[in-house]
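Sequence only, no structure available. Ideas?
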Amino acid sequence: MGPHAACDQDQMPRCQLCEGVGGHAYGDKNVEYDPVECSIISLPNQTNMSTVHWPVYPKKFTISRVDGRPGYSDTLIGWKTDPFCFGFFPQNDSIPPLCYRSQDAIGKWYDAYGSRNGTAGAARSDYTIKESGIFKLFPNITSTILQTDWQMWIQNDLWGVKQCICANPSGNHCTEPPCKSYVWHYDTFKSAQYLGRERIGVEWLRHAGVGKAAKLWDLDHFIMWTHHAWTDPISGRIVRMWKPFNGLQNYDPEAWTDDVDRSVFDSPPALCKKGGAKIRINCDDAGNFHKGLEHLERLKQIALKATEPMSSEIIQIKLAEKIA
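Reply:
I predicted one. C-alpha cells follow.
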C-alpha cells in the first residue's frame, strides 16, 4: 500500500501483517514515498505472547542522542499553513497541499501530567532540519515544537533569524469555538490490536537510510484505526509508528529514559513574547499575535537569488541590507 492508504482495524478486510506500513513520504501523490522491506515472522497464535509489549508510552520520558547519533527521527506531515512549511502540525484529514518534513531530534521530552496546572500533558521536540526547495542552498536550521495544555509554540532559528509561531493545534475544524487539542495521552494505544511479528525496515536509526536502505528489525506490529505501531520484543520499547497524512516516528530503544526535567516545558517561551523573536506570528505580547511576515518574504527573495551554498552570517548580512 502507498503511504496515504487508509487501512484500519474497523475496515473489512483490515490491514494484515506487512500492509499499511508506510515509509518516508515526501509528496502528496501515493507513489511519493520510499517503501521499506517487510516479511512476516509469525501470526499471534505462532508468537510467544510473553515477549509481546503493547505500544504504551511511559508516563514521562526523555529521548536523547546515543553515541552522537539521533535517538529519535521523524517525518511530519501536515497542512501547509505557510509557503515554506516552517510552521505546521499533523491534522486529521488529507486535504492537500501538505508539508512533508523529515528531521532528526536533538532531544524529545514528554510528561502525561506536565502542564502548568498538572492536569494535561506537555511535550517538546528539538530538531535539526535540512531544508529543501528554494532554501536547499541554505544551512540546516533548528526548530523546537513545544506544547503544554492546548497551546503550541513552534520556534525556529532561520539562519540566525529567530522566529516564533504561536499555534492552536486543534486546527481549522472548529465549528463551535473555542476548540482545544491536547498532547497525546501515554496509553492512547493500550487497546491497539496485535497483528503479529514482522521483519521490517526502520528508517534513520543507527545510521540507516530510507526505503531499502532502512535497517531491518524484528518487531511486533499493532494497529488502531489508521495508526500503526511497532514495538521491540527485546527492550519492550516503541520503535516505529506510522499514520497516513500524519507522519512517521522512529525511536532507538537505547535512547529512552523514563524521567523528565519539567523545566523544558516552561511556557510561553521568551522568544514568543514581546521583544523576543524578530518574526512573531499569531503571538500577542504575552506569547499569543500577527506580525513579522515581511521578514519571511525577504528571506524568500534571498533564497531565490542564491546560486551557491550560503552561510548563516551571509544570510543575516543580506537580510540586514534589505531591511535598511
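Residues 293-305 form the longest helix (13 residues).
Hope that gets you unstuck.
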